[in-house]
Amino acid sequence: MCLVESCNWRIHACVLLDGVSWAIKTLVSDHKSCGRLEENPMVTSQWLCTKLLPDIEANPEIPIKTLQRKALGIYRVQVKQRLMYKVRSLGRQQIYGGFDESYALLPSYAEMIKSTNPGSYALVTWTADSGNVTPRFKACFFSFAAQVRGFLRGCRPIIGIDGAHLSGYYKGILLTAVAIDGNNEIFPLAYSIVTTESMDTWSYFFRSLKALFVQHGCQMDDWTFISDRMR
Questions:
Q1: What is the pLDDT of residues 122-173, one digit of tens each?
Q2: What are phi and psi of 125, to 5 degrees?
Q3: Are 141 and 208 in contact (CB under 8 A)?
Q4: pTM
Q5: What is the residue extent of each domain of the chain?
Q6: Rg for the chain (alpha carbons), in Å?
Q7: Per-residue b/e over 10-48, b at no fewer than 16 CB within 10 Å?
Q8: In 10 A of CB 5, how many CB atoms?
Q9: How many helices (DSSP H) and strands (DSSP E) are in the chain?
Q10: Which of 31, 145, 184, 186 is the most exposed place for a label (fewest CB within 10 A)?
């Protein structure tokens, strides 16, 4: 039956004995005073992702409104913004992989950095393995050789530190250390991803930073640190 009450369109069919074929028993084919319904509850995020994946592959940052216009123009379905955000997220996941897969690759990434970029510092920390409980990510710290060498050779002994919330699926905090180079421009030194911003995670960050300097033979201990909270 048609969803529009004033329209008499209807179709009635039943399955034949072979279990595959259908027979139409009743058909009122005329639609009256009803147009095409552009909101279809049967349109799922998986179906839309399959249809719009080429557009997301071409531009993973494609605006939601652009995807909505494409869905309406090509498939005549009006998709709510919330559902389209999920569609774009599914598309990105098919292109780049999921957050869980990316975090699982961190230990391999750290070892690759150390083996292919000598002088770099890469550390990934996990919770202790207790019985059948799978270890969980706790923190990571990265600094490339060119960063620390450039800082020690060409920057003032002043380090700015900051923490920012991550907006990904697993959230977390991004801790960073930056300096100012000879051109008065920001010079990135190191970064760390931790679960929360606390005394313990900042201690982890500074311990790793100190180990980084020691690794490069720097015994200097009179650095000046400036926090974003000191503005």
A1: 999 988 766 667 778 899 999 999 999 999 998 988 999 999 999 877 889 9
A2: -115, 135
A3: yes
A4: 0.69
A5: 10-96, 102-230
A6: 28
A7: eeeeeeeeeeeeeeeeeeeeeeeeeeeeeeeeebebeeb
A8: 9
A9: 7, 8
A10: 184
